[in-house]
Amino acid sequence: MSTTTERQQWLERRRSGIGGSDVAPILGMSKWRTAYDVWLSKTSETPEEDRTTMPMLLGNVLEPEVLRLYEQQTGVSVRRSRVLHKHATHGELIANVDATSKGRIIEAKTARSRDGWGDAGSDDVPEAYWLQVQHYLYVCQKPLADVARSEEHTSELQSHHDLVCRLLLEK
């Protein structure tokens, strides 16, 4: 986000639905937020305050470099995404993906911890990231996503639309 106004507009768009980073807290699987936090951020009449933490700031700054590294490692060009996607049937489900390429989603991560990550090339990623990407795949109706990590680590994830549908019905 280059300006304060753009950041505020982005935060307001996030209030319009359930995004990928909202899924883990809603399911009680987040270390950082609760379902109540998500509800409050979506329903409060007071605009969501900009709680940018250092890891969030670093993630925003380093994301283009992670995507560039992904391109170098895979030989695949990516296109940064600035679009807020909405599910065709469930318009309350939104996705703000980092990039796309050849029919797949590319999610860039700058996690400082190795917790939850498998070997490079495996589909083992931290639970919250897995849920986020599955949400994006469902919203965008894509079959595959790559999770590109800053340490020359890329994981390919297949869509599990059936699981996402069951989770939606339960919550």
Task: Give an overview of the whole structure.
- With 171 residues, the chain is an alpha+beta fold.
- It contains 6 helices and 7 strands, in the order ααααβββββαββα.
- The strands form 2 sheets. The protein has a 5-stranded mixed sheet. It has a two-stranded antiparallel sheet with strand order 2-3.
- The longest helix has 21 residues, at 54-74.
- The chain is globular.
- 27% of the residues are buried.
- The mean pLDDT is 84.
Rg measurement, Å: 16 Å
**Largest sheet, spatial ordering of strands:** 1-4-5-6-7
Question: Which structural class is indicated by helix and strand composition?
Answer: alpha+beta
Largest sheet: 5 strands, mixed
Taking all residues together, what is the mean pLDDT?
Answer: 84
- Give the SSE order as H and E letters: HHHHEEEEEHEEH
User: Which overall shape is indicated by the principal axes computed on the Cα atoms?
Assistant: globular
Beta-strand segment tally: 7
* N/C terminus separation: 32 Å
- State the helicity in percent bands: 40-55%
Tell me the number of helical segments per DSSP (H or I, 4 or more residues long).
Answer: 6
The low-confidence runs, each spanning 5 or more residues with pLDDT under 50, are none
What percentage of the residues does DSSP assign to strands (E)?
15-25%
